Amino acid sequence: MKSKGWGRMVNISSPAHRGGFRQANYSSAKAGIIGLTRTLAIDGVKNKILVNAVAPHNVNPPILATVAEVDRTPWLAKSRLGRFAEPKEIAALFCFLASDDNAVVSGQLNEADGADLVGAG
Question: What's this model's pTM, rounded to 2 decimal places?
């Protein structure tokens, strides 16, 4: 990327970056991805390398079908969007961030959260 003078990196984090009960290892790793993303963005921008991270929330991957409805229902009830995001919707964000169309977004954590964090304090 540096030799070409152009590049895009998109890292994947998680809402767990905020911490979670008995998730010290996972939460630390996901928070570390954010720090890595921001540092690489600072280092890369002079070479037109843009670096971002995505933290998908409430996604409906195929494995979710194996989770009992009694466990999924409360999770879904907390969603302001009223549904789980489809993987292709999250993929579209990754595709934009990795594309030529992204000319200025760098060093950001993009929380694909369906407005769940709006107004959160």
Answer: 0.89
